[in-house]
Amino acid sequence: WAEAARLVLENYSDAPMTPKQILQVIEAEGLKEMRSGTSPLACLNAMLHSNSRGGEGLFYKLPGRISLFTLKV
């Protein structure tokens, strides 16, 4: 999930995106194999939140109520 989300934010958007927007691009571009029985949005959302905490995370969550993510620079 992290690699697919990184590719989306690097190559398909100039602005922060919601997990749902990121997932739409992942699905449209075939960047991640989807398994039946899982919730892709829940998996992506959990990964984004866990990888936006601390100094080592790859993603940055913008402050506010809406979950908007971008890559850390």
Question: Can you give me a brief rundown of this structure?
Answer:
Helices cover 44% and strands 8% of the residues. The longest helix is centred in the N-terminal third of the chain and has 11 residues, at 19-29. The chain has one domain (2-71).
Report the order of strands and helices.
HHHEE
Task: Determine the fraction of residues in helical runs and give it as a percent range.
Answer: 40-55%
Low-pLDDT stretches:
none
Average pLDDT level: 90
Arrangement of strands in the largest sheet? 1-2
Overall SS class: mainly alpha
Biggest β-sheet, characterized?
2 strands, antiparallel
How many β-strand stretches? 2
What's the Cα radius of gyration?
A: 12 Å
Keywords: Transcription
InterPro entries: ASX/ASX-like, Asxl_HARE-HTH
Organism: Pongo abelii
Protein name: ASXL1 isoform 6
